[in-house]
Every structure is written in structure tokens, then in C-alpha cells.
Amino acid sequence: xxxxxxxxxxxxxxxxxxRIARVLDSDIFHSFWRSxxxxxxxxxxxLFIIGAAFAPWLAPHNPFDLATISILDARLPxxxxxxxxxxxxxxxxxxxxxxxxxxxxxxxxSLAVGFLSxxxxxxxxxxxxxxxxxxxxxxxxxxxxxxxxxxxxxxILIALLVDGVARALVGNLDRERYAFWILVxxxxxxxxxxxxxxxxxxxxxxxxxxxxxAARLIGIPPFLIMIRHVLPNVIGPVLVIATINLGLAVIxxxxxxxxxxxxxxxxxxxxxxxxxxxDFLFSGEWWIAMFPGCALAILVLAVNLLGDWLRDALNxxxx
Length: 319
Prior knowledge:
about 325 residues, about 0% strand, 12 helices
């Protein structure tokens, strides 16, 4: 007697739609969708990112193309004022460059500095925090003492110190060529401490959990334990710090550029645009500094509100 077995494979749901459904049904998504302020902040942040990424196609003028800039168009007022030019929505600066196009290109540089500096700071801080919390002992003491010493210096002073060292090593002309990366490095050097201290505290708790002890028993190397097992369980606070530090990095870049030690005027960021317009703020051409300043404030506020929501959403005690 033969038996017939059903070899028809079980039907499986498509992976992608299932993941999307789980995301839409999660507590974090519902928390995000219920908060109108958070949705508006995410929308504004996304607009800035899109505008910065596609600035060459969205900007009506290229502020870096000298062939299209005329000094005769300098200090034209924005639309709504007398003697305005319809082709310049927010007016022009003292060089005849379109302020709106300058904001798009300036946001591109400011966001690039912010994202890269936070990324490098997170990589360094997370690695040092994992090592300090997991290894402990003298290694932990050395890393934390270095972090505590750095906390006594404001981020602006550290960035100014790095800029001064760069000027001494490469000179002023080469410094302008590498100004972008010098700025990224100086801001990243200022922000790694917060990541390291937070990850160290979480690692001290996670290293005594059962899953870490089991990984040790089966012979997994310590570095793989930190990366594969400990890191995924401490990544939540890292995302919160990274989001908040993005706004701080943009503000730091704008401050340094305003002081004249950031991005050079040939590659204007939002901070550089504000510094240029500050010379004409009280002479009647208020729009040269006002519009880039407002764009900078709105961007940082939107990012900070997203960071506050993410902190509450990832902490069950604050939901």
C-alpha cells in the first residue's frame, strides 16, 4: 500500500510587502503619524535634503558660474518690493548672485558637512565605546579620561584648534582647497565623546547578558561579539544622538563659516551666506542675510524636533 504525500510547498508571503506592513503597523510609525509636529519636521527636513541634493537642477541660477553673474544685478530686492526682478525670487547679494539659488547650494554644503561629520564621529565613538565597555579595566579608564578631558573644551574651540593646525601644516592656499574636509574632521573630533559615553554605558549592561556569555562559551572572538551581538542592542541611543548632533553639526559649521574659518566664500554654505549678508544687514539689503539665516534656523529646528521624537519613540518609558 502506497501513501501519497503532499509535496506542495507552503505558500509564503512576499518579503517586501510583509516588511512594509509590519513597519506600518509598528508603534514607532503610529507615534510618528500621530504627531503633526513630527510629520511637519520630517517633511521640512526632506525638502531641504531634496533641494540640496538636486540643487543643480532645481536652482534657477548657478551662483558659481561667473559667466551668468552680472554685477549690475547686485543687491536686487526680493519679490514684493520696489525695483525687484521676477527672475530673482529672494533677491540678489552684493555680487549679483541669486539668494534662493545660494540657499540651495549652501544647504548642500552644510548638510554634507553635517552628515559626514556625524558619521565619522559615530564610527569612532561607537567603536571606542564598545571597546571601553566590553574590555574594561585600564583600556576603559584611558578612553574615558580622554573623553572627560575633551568635554572641558567647547566644540568651537576644538574646531578652531584643528583649523589653526591645518593652516600651519598646509598653508592658507591649500587650506582653502581642503577646507571642507578640515571642517568635517574638526566637527567629528568634537562630537565623538557623546557616542562613546552612551555606547559604553549600554555595553556595560549588555556584556553580562546571557547571549553574550553564550557567545563567549562557543569561542566567538570578542570583536565579533561586540559587532554582531552587542552593537545591535545599543544602536537605538546612537540613532537619537546622531539625529540631534546633525543639527548641532550644521550650527557648528555655520558658526565657523561666520567666523571666517569654515567654508571659503568661493564655496558658500549657509553660514558663509549669513556672514556675507551681515555686512549689508543695516544698510537696507536685509534679505542677503535674513533669508539664509531663516533657512538655517528652520533646518536645525526641524532636525532637532525629529531627534526629540526619535528619543521618545525608542524609549518605552517615555511613550
